[in-house]
Design a protein that fits this description.
Elements: H1 2-15, E1 24-31, E2 43-48, E3 59-62, H2 65-73, E4 78-80, H3 82-90, H4 92-101, E5 104-108, H5 112-118, H6 120-123, E6 131-133, H7 139-146, E7 149-154, E8 159-166, H8 171-188, E9 196-203, E10 209-210
Parallel strand pairs: 3-4, 3-5, 5-6
Antiparallel strand pairs: 1-8, 1-9, 2-7, 9-10
Length: about 210
């Protein structure tokens, strides 16, 4: 399948018109013989792409004290302390903006009850509830991993769509990222990637290109 993937990546890149921004490349996989009405057939996982996403993402860290200081040094896009969290709890509009602006949230474990109270109603429906980390955690490796992470999920349709890179990445590197996504299918589906009905690639503004 690797050859088909490489050819599809090349074609998707060739067929997209130049834009004044770097386009993402998404993979769209349709799964056969899967009853999504059964909860055990649905999944929501994260995978760290071996060659990164190719695009920057925004990460917010909810922490106090030393972890907040370290998160700032490690390059978190936003650090929210206890007071900031309480303020967001009073301003739902601002909380929604914040939730939409950031891809991932990380929270100091002992602040999770406050996060649930003040931000849970906004982050929960967006599937962005923070990953809890101990107050003694080193934020740098956590942020580094998240910067190359994508979500792979099957919810109410037997279809997966996720980012696998950008148009300026090398075809081989994108193919390796796709392989990491397919690994999630192998772990979660009874017949793994043999349950793929169809697979397509597309750039943000480009046409859909069939892989298989």
């Amino acid at each position: 399948m690797k050859q088909e993937i490489l050819e599809a990546v090349k074609k998707a890149k060739e067929e997209t018109k130049p834009r004044n921004f770097t386009q993402s490349i998404d993979i769209i996989i349709s799964i056969k013989d899967l009853d999504v009405n059964k909860p055990e057939n649905r999944f929501d996982e994260e995978v760290a792409l071996p060659n990164g996403r190719g695009k920057d993402i925004k990460i917010a860290v909810i922490a106090d004290g030393e972890l907040a200081v370290q998160a700032e040094k490690a390059g978190a896009d936003l650090v929210i302390n206890k007071t900031g969290l309480e303020d967001l709890g009073k301003d739902r509009k601002e909380a929604k903006k914040l939730a939409n602006r950031h891809n991932f949230f990380v929270a100091q474990a002992d602040m999770m009850p406050l996060v649930g109270r003040f931000l849970g109603p906004v982050l929960g429906p967006r599937k962005k509830m923070p990953k809890p980390v101990p107050a003694s955690a080193k934020p740098e490796p956590i942020l580094e991993r998240l910067r190359s992470t994508v979500k792979v999920r099957i919810k109410d349709q037997p279809v997966i769509q996720t980012l696998v890179g950008t148009q300026d990445m090398d075809e081989e590197l994108i193919a390796e990222n796709i392989e990491a996504v397919l690994g999630i299918l192998d772990r979660n589906l009874e017949k793994g990637r043999n349950q793929i009905k169809s697979m397509y690639l597309k750039t943000t503004m480009g046409p859909v290109v069939r892989v298989i």
